[in-house]
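Sequence in, structure out.
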Amino acid sequence: MGFIKKIVVYPDVILLLMKDQKSSILLVDDDLVYRYAATKTIKATGLAGKIEEYSNVTDALNFIKANISNPETLPDVIFLDINMPAMDGWEFIDGFNPIASSVPKKIYIYIVSSSIDKSDISRAREIDIVTDYLIKPVFKERFAEILRSIRL
């Protein structure tokens, strides 16, 4: 017993290690081609770790609910389409909002849509848990900017 004499914690080193971690992503969009292109573009930034993809809101919400007690498996960022069949992105927000306070870490939600309708943009910006509204297509530089900003 007694092999460890002293443990010294350097906050700057811990902070640096945390900042070097890659962000995990949840991509929710019914368009297979968009998911493929977005995944490739996000990976090309070099700032993303695991990218989880769902083609529908129900599966995405079930994933979050099933992993709510395990922050390591939850995404850091959600890129969410609003125009989808069955349940849309607004319904995802409605389903996520009641559990948001139970989520053990901050999840940044970006609505990603081809809609330039001002009412969609205004609606998104009025929702506290939505970080921003992005208009498709989203290019590598914008994904990189987002992923860098959440690491600060």
